[in-house]
């Protein structure tokens, strides 16, 4: 679970952002409505820079943010893909390869890390949606909790990978 973050805390959290990226950073429209008790990370696509996204999570109770760059999504809707953070199965054109420059010297030398994510960065919402039940299937509430915990763990691991 995240704690409420001010705009200043969010802006200061980015470990791999250039000065220009920070100047252009716009918080998502939903920022003021975030239910902080029900998210483990804040992720959004930039409305003005098409290939840019942002991901902020807490590591040791401190916000750590990374700037993401999206590759062009595949044009085929006939294949399936899986987001590596929330493990949601979707049509291939709804999952995109995102890369992030590593923080510090490694990033300045051109090193980056990448993974496949939901194109709209809606992982926090996706793990909280109940999956449709099969006929006669009964599912406990722990299924959703396990998905949420897994997303939080994988998100921190990805951000820590950017930290190096």
Measured by DSSP, the beta-strand proportion falls in 25-35%
Query: Helical content, roughly?
Result: 25-40%
Structural class: alpha+beta
Largest sheet: 5 strands, antiparallel
Q: Mind telling me the C-alpha Rg?
A: 16 Å
Count of DSSP-assigned helices? 5
- Count of strand segments: 7
Model regions low in confidence, pLDDT < 50 over at least 5 residues: none
* Terminal-residue CA separation: 23 Å
> How confident overall, as mean pLDDT?
90
- What's the order of the H and E elements? HHEEEEEEHEHH
Order of strands, main sheet, comes to 1-2-3-6-7
Global geometry? globular
Structure description:
There is one protein chain. The chain has 164 residues and is an alpha+beta fold. It is built from 5 helices and 7 strands. The chain has helices spanning 7-12, 19-24, 104-108, 123-126, 142-163; strands at residues 41-45, 52-59, 62-70, 80-82, 89-91, 95-101, 112-118. Strands 1-2-3-6-7 form a 5-stranded antiparallel beta sheet. A two-stranded antiparallel sheet has the order 4-5. A hairpin with a 2-residue loop joins strand 2 (52-59) and strand 3 (62-70). It is globular, with a radius of gyration of 16 Å.
